[in-house]
Amino acid sequence: MEALPIQSDSDCPGPESVQAEVRELTTPEQRQAVPDDAKVMVSDRGDSIAIAITRDGKTSVRVYRDAARDCARRAHFVSVLVVVALMPPELGSSPAASEPEPESEPESTTVTAPPVAAAAEPKPAPPASPRHVRIELGARGDVSTPISDSARIAALGGALGVALGAGKLRFTLATGYLPSTVGFGLRVVFAHLPVDTTLDAGLLATRAEVTGHSSRRPAQDTAFSVGARVGLHACWSEQSLVSPFLGAYATVFPLAPALSQLPQGTVSHLPYLWVGLSGGLALAL
After folding, report:
1. In CATH, what is the architecture of 133-284?
2. Which end of the chain has less Cβ packing within 10 Å, N or C?
3. Residues 144, 178: contact at Cβ < 8 Å?
4. Cβ neighbours of residue 124 closer than 8 Å, sequence gap 6 or more
5. Are 231 and 252 in contact (CB under 8 A)?
6. DSSP state letters, 226-261
7. What tens digit of pLDDT does each residue of 46-86 get?
8. Domain ranges of the chain
């Protein structure tokens, strides 16, 4: 028979692809010698196929395991099995004759597919998601510089800051106590690893108060000033959930107001220039 009675319950492999493989491996004389009662049934089981071949009233079943579902390899295996089982080898020498003949068994047998390709190398772990919010809580020390009649002040206090963003440029908010300040600005990241280093710059406002007493009446003077701050900020691995940080900065108030009290009158000005250090822990979210 020219076309073998091959059936399959799926397209992997389909009957047409198996028939094409058989025609390449055999001659017309070999195909004509196939018994009239011969038939082939291929069942797709997902990660394997079962091939049932019937000849002379007897049926043998083979199982070919192929988790990769290589349809071309499946079709080739089925075609070789069909040629060996149904066509007498003495009628011609074909490529099929050199194939190893599988043993006929009434019970199913598992055949492991040869490796298709080398095992894929493990993929690198995806990079950690960038942190977009940094909350920095720390202590700070400020010292005023003696310029003109400005007050000489050294102060220890605390500071709370927030940096928003994950790129090279970030927005910052800050507040501090002693001296009392609030401000906002920008942070530019210019170095990474092993220490993340940034340049901070921004505007801020401060409030100072002097209280005086006289025999006639007490007096209190409160002054506000607006200035600018610039500094260097460094932290250890800003991608970590919690990391230490350290900063050094300078603050200038070009229009520092005068401080007055009774009965003395004007006693000094708020400092025109401050220098300071800060340090603490940052929480990255």
Report:
1. Beta Barrel (2.40)
2. C
3. no
4. none
5. no
6. EEEEEEEEEEE-TTSSEEEEEEEEEEE-TTPPEEEE
7. 888 999 888 888 888 888 888 888 898 988 998 888 888 88
8. 6-112, 133-284
